[in-house]
Amino acid sequence: MTSADVRATPSASSRAPRLVMKFGGTSVGDLERIEQAARKVAQEVERGYQVAVIVSAMAGETNRLVGYVRDVNRLYDAREYDTVVAAGEQVTSGLMALTLQKLGVPARSWQGWQIPLRTSAAHGAARIEDIDTAALDQKFDEGLHAVIAGFQGIGPDNRIATLGRGGSDTSAVAIAAALKAERCDIYTDVDGVYTTDPRLVSEARKIHQIAFEEMLELASLGAKVLQTRSVELAMRYQVPLQVLSTFGEAVGSDMAGTLVCDESELTEDKVEGKAVSGVAFSRNEAKITLLEVADVPGVAARVFGPLAEQNINVDMIVQNISESGHTDMTFTVSTDDYERALSIIEAAKETIQFQSLRSDSDVAKLSIVGIGMRSHAGTAQKMFQVLANEGINIEVISTSEIKISVLVKRKYMELGVQALHKAFDLDAASA
Amino acid sequence: MTSADVRATPSASSRAPRLVMKFGGTSVGDLERIEQAARKVAQEVERGYQVAVIVSAMAGETNRLVGYVRDVNRLYDAREYDTVVAAGEQVTSGLMALTLQKLGVPARSWQGWQIPLRTSAAHGAARIEDIDTAALDQKFDEGLHAVIAGFQGIGPDNRIATLGRGGSDTSAVAIAAALKAERCDIYTDVDGVYTTDPRLVSEARKIHQIAFEEMLELASLGAKVLQTRSVELAMRYQVPLQVLSTFGEAVGSDMAGTLVCDESELTEDKVEGKAVSGVAFSRNEAKITLLEVADVPGVAARVFGPLAEQNINVDMIVQNISESGHTDMTFTVSTDDYERALSIIEAAKETIQFQSLRSDSDVAKLSIVGIGMRSHAGTAQKMFQVLANEGINIEVISTSEIKISVLVKRKYMELGVQALHKAFDLDAASA
Fold this sequence. Notes:
Two copies of one chain form a homodimer. Chain A is about 35% helix and about 25% strand. Chain A has two domains: about 15-265, Carbamate kinase; about 280-430, 2-Layer Sandwich (VC0802-like). Chain A is globular, with a radius of gyration of 24 Å. In chain A, strands 3-6-2-1-9-11-12-10 form an eight-stranded mixed sheet, sandwiched between helices. Chain A has a six-stranded antiparallel sheet with strand order 14-15-13-16-18-17. Chain A is built from 15 helices and 18 strands. In chain A, helix 3 packs across helix 6 (about 85-100).
């Protein structure tokens, strides 16, 4: 682009680039930490960004407020829950704006209803429906950086609606998309996304770049660093996300964390690289097997219909080859839903028509994830071999284009994760 | 009124009578107390009222939030201060609504911006400018009682504005006026307004009824039970106010507290009754005397102009008879402003032209208040005699139609209050 091009650019694109910086609860846990976070914002402002800061409630505050609500009335009205709980982010937004002002950064706070950030009517777990950026744009043009209370918006009933736990990440991504921000930096208490949980595998390494699809699989499979919903949103709106530590020296523009972006934007040579980007695991699994189910059309609906009606999510499903008109059907649910699932299935025994039921909540799920799998043949075979070499029996298998999950006895979980991490060249030494 | 009249009444007047119930910080200090307050609301709902409950922040919460703001940035932006501090009332409003729901009372919370309750732009000390009751009316018609966050509204800039400390009383009275409520009950930690402070005079009695004008004088003179501003507002809009205890058994409709109302509404026989309704006092006084001030036109402006410019409130003013073109001028200020007032006067010595200055911060103000004074001649004379009998010298006198204040040495304050309380037949025994 020549300088003549730049001059010809309409005013909207000659705006300063925008950046969204999101700070979670521990990152704004007290006034000192708020100041530490504000200094990072000031650094990015100095680099020329118009910054929208998204803040959570101070650590512990949401729990305190939720505790009040539950203590008052266990059958709480979600609209009142939202009114009470949103106060946490409101306080942080004002304090962050004041701290930025003290550091010489012109800033003001915004509540969801002031923007407005409109949500669905589902109080307590609302979805963002529309973000009107006109008022924000105007204040940016006046030189005011924005501090936005995360986790909240305004419902169609003109009342405060919250997005559900972890919703501040979702707020941040949605606002980044609406503001056409260059990037959305999620500051947290870890310095990025790891190849697996470092508490389980000391050789785990930080991933510098990862594709949206891979991050989505890892988040769904139990990596807690980013909410599944926020990754989905980032992928849909193509907002590059970066996960990085509030407590380190670097800021987002130093690219010191894990960048989650479109596959086409990855600068590391993924194709020639590894088949697998990360190993995920979940202890929170239970297996249910129905023996000798009548193998007739509609049987799956008869099994899973009653579970879906009760909002029980079924994860892996395996149906064996039919013998003499009967089949065995195995599926997994989260341990939280395990007891309820069992009693629902028992109650529907007549309708489903099965001989007997076996169940096991002493299982775990191991998964390998990587877009490299597409071009690396034999990844599944290698995974099964690695586990076999360790004497680990595979009970259920489920795959997608960029993920393979297996169910194993829980006692083998740690061993399995370590073996897979090493076998797929993820250990720090082999990086 | 016949039953035919009742049927002919238009729908607006056939509405249930309305009641405003305001609970202060100690009355909603924890969940147990919120429930205690909610039970009082439920009782009034049972008596047929549409109730608007005005709540303060839970005791201690406002101080905590104000502390955060001051710790962050002493030169705080009042708009951010308001955003942070208003969160306290927001939390209580949600919790109160939930508690009412638990007790079977249909209710919802309202923030200032939802009503909307519009204020001036003076963030941190905003004035209420307009209350649109359309949305409240509609919800009342749907059977929903209202829980309104006190102390806050929305400014012309679409941002939360608070009314300043104690503003919840003002909210309550303004909302009572807008809703045309039958009465505004202020629930607090004392059971009414007393003839004087019971901590000073054990014979002090609770006043059952008092006129707005008297209450206004008592509030201005230091009775802390009601904010001056809220009494002014109640008087202007003729909203009967009742002060009563949250911790007693009775509710407002039992008329167990102190009713503050228009003189014409007083049912107790005030005319034949006592000249004096209450004795007020203030330790918070300091006296400044300018000796040999040039007695020329404009001298008062030269003295009080510089004080007014610095927002120093001058209370009592006495100017002696002029001798040979000079006069002595005495005035009082609050002890908080005393040092500043002295240095302002010293700095303006050239302009004012006075010989010397004497000051004394070891004084107190005693006042008697009563609409009965108008019809009882010789009340001032009696007050002076009572004090003289106790050997108490009067330094400055200031009067209004229904009030006489005198300045005395501080050491005589208690003795003076007790003597006046007894002499004007206010002791419990003589009631």
